[in-house]
Design brief:
With 200 residues, the chain is an alpha+beta fold. Helix content is 38%, strand content 31%. The protein has 7 helices and 11 strands. A hairpin with a 2-residue loop joins strand 10 (150-155) and strand 11 (158-159). The chain starts with a helix and ends in a 9-residue tail after the last helix. Keywords: Isomerase, Signal.
Length: 200
């Protein structure tokens, strides 16, 4: 009888633990991505995710989280409330390599007038990369837009610097992956849920 009672308690503990564990939506090349996450007090859903390739090398997994599923760039850029891009590194990169890729994506996908309005924020963003010698395989960088707060950058859960106030700045970063000249065309499709990346 005592054994039976203990077994029931143990089963209850396992069930309770299961209820609080993350629900994985995708496994991309061994990188597990959560189906939902809380940003700015709002539950966001995984919109789409894929791998950023450079030549034949896997650089990182990128995932886009929104309040509601969107499949076009204008819809994503106009999406209300918090948003998040999660990057999970799949290889070691120097800050120069990573920063150059980011700034190149910004240059190619944003017009001169927009960029000139946010010069000080881009300079500060470049300095942020300089403060991190390198990104290692398994590191997680997150870029979050939180209304009334701004764009927040986190590395392995730790906030990096102060928020960037303009929504236009967050959208400028989003265009690195979703712009007319994205860093990886197949990744753009995956983040917009245009192709299935399950089990990659």
């Amino acid at each position: 009888m005592k054994l039976n009672t203990y077994a029931k308690k143990l089963a209850g503990m396992v069930l309770a633990a299961g209820l609080t564990a993350p629900v994985w939506a995708l496994d991309i090349a061994g990188v597990k991505l959560e189906e939902t996450m809380q940003v700015g007090g709002t539950e966001l859903k995984l919109n789409g995710a894929g791998i950023r390739y450079k030549a034949i090398f896997k650089v990182y997994v990128a995932a886009l989280y929104l309040k509601e599923k969107k499949t076009t760039v204008p819809e994503v850029l106009a999406s209300p409330g918090p948003r998040r891009v999660t990057l999970v590194m799949m290889r070691d990169l120097t800050n120069e390599e990573f920063g150059r890729s980011f700034m190149s994506g910004i240059q190619q996908n944003n017009d001169k007038a927009e960029k000139s309005k946010m010069t000080s924020q881009f300079i500060r963003f470049g300095e942020l990369f300089a403060s991190v010698p390198e990104l290692k395989k398994g590191d997680i960088m997150a870029i979050e837009w939180i209304p009334s707060v701004g764009t927040v950058v986190l590395l392995n859960g730790k906030k990096m610097g102060e928020p960037y106030p303009d929504l236009a700045f967050f959208n400028a970063l989003l265009r690195i992956w979703l712009g007319e000249y994205p860093v990886d065309k197949s990744l753009k499709k995956a983040m917009l849920a245009e192709e299935d990346t399950r089990g990659r």
